[in-house]
Design goal:
Helices cover about 60% and strands about 0% of the residues. It is mainly alpha-helical. It has two domains: about 110 residues, HD-domain/PDEase-like (Cyclin A, domain 1, Orthogonal Bundle); about 80 residues, Methane Monooxygenase Hydroxylase, Chain G, domain 1 (Up-down Bundle), CATH 1.20.58. It is globular and about 65 Å long.
Length: about 190
């Protein structure tokens, strides 16, 4: 059986290769995945997941899941089950223990913002990637704040997440206020 650190390094290599093959945009590149990993591990520690008897194993599961969380993401693949299938095949191919496979898949399936992707609503954030990238539409980065980013604070499920979200939300509101003043030449 391979050591957890070795499997984490192997998974990093796999994810880096997949990013190149799948040609993800900058919003889901290696920097994004590494930020998700670091934040997930920090939140796990803050929430006390790392102080339990199985701390190392819990952190390993969080790290593996965070590394694999965007592999074959439905927004890119167009298939709801592509991510689970790809991750499960990868874990099985490398003889990752069955109980840990289930835990990693459960974590990944619990990640995401699918409630924000309601097809009955038409903000650009709710479109498929192809429709979102449609050159006939005029994308704005500022819309993304209102379509998704400012909603995140209310979606946090842990104390550590809510704490971080409060300060980030306040920062975004201050940024948007200043941006609008600049935009209207009132600053």
């Amino acid at each position: 059986m391979q050591k957890p650190a070795d499997f984490i390094l192997r998974t990093e290599r796999f994810v880096r290769e997949q990013i190149v093959v799948l040609d993800h945009d900058a919003s889901h590149d290696w920097s994004h995945i590494d930020r998700v990993r670091k934040l997930a591990l920090a939140l796990a520690r803050e929430e006390g997941i790392a102080v339990l008897q199985a701390a190392a194993e819990n952190l390993e599961l969080v790290e593996i899941a965070s590394l694999l969380h965007d592999i074959q993401d439905w927004k890119y693949s167009g298939r709801e089950t592509a991510a689970a299938t790809t991750v499960e095949e990868y874990l099985q191919q490398h003889s990752y223990p069955q109980d840990k496979q289930k835990a990693v898949l459960d974590i990944i399936q619990g990640i995401g913002f699918k409630p924000l992707y309601d097809p009955a609503i038409q903000p650009r954030n709710n479109l498929t990637k192809a429709a979102y990238m449609d050159s006939s539409q005029k994308p704005t980065t500022i819309n993304h704040f209102y379509e998704k980013l400012l909603k995140l604070q209310g979606m946090m499920k842990t104390d550590a997440g809510r704490k971080r979200a409060r300060s980030r939300h306040a920062f975004m509101e201050a940024f948007l206020k200043q941006f609008m003043l600049e935009w209207d030449a009132q600053a």
